[in-house]
């Protein structure tokens, strides 16, 4: 699993940063498809996210689905695969705050 640091899980980092993340994630250009492919969400959940009116509402609905560390790890992988590296960095660096973190790109390449 990929963890922001020894004390903070990716799940708790996503929960803490949720309101800010909604401004940065781009769900409409491959991310939802990648999350389906990785079995992070079901087709029904993806359809529910897609029908939200604004990108912010879609992101909020998407982030609400992240309820386990495994899902969150796969979410980071999906963000990486859809070239949303800035979002991965934002999450793993605690919203831009410096702390111990691992090299996410190296970890993702080895998946």
Describe this structure in words.
The N and C termini lie close together (10 Å). This protein has 7 helices and no strands. With 111 residues, the chain is an all-alpha fold. The protein has one domain: Orthogonal Bundle (Death Domain, Fas).
- What Rg, in angstroms, do the CA atoms define? 13 Å
CATH architecture: Orthogonal Bundle
Euclidean distance between termini CA atoms: 10 Å
SSE topology string:
HHHHHHH
Structural class: mainly alpha
Number of helices: 7
How would you state the average pLDDT, rounded? 85
Categorize the overall geometry. Answer: globular
Helix content: 55-70%
CATH class call = Mainly Alpha
Give the amount of beta strand, in percent. Answer: under 5%
Low-confidence regions: 1-7, 99-103
> What number of structural domains do the residues give?
1
Got a strand count? 0
- Major β-sheet profile: none
Task: Supply the CATH superfamily name.
Answer: Death Domain, Fas
CATH topology: Death Domain, Fas
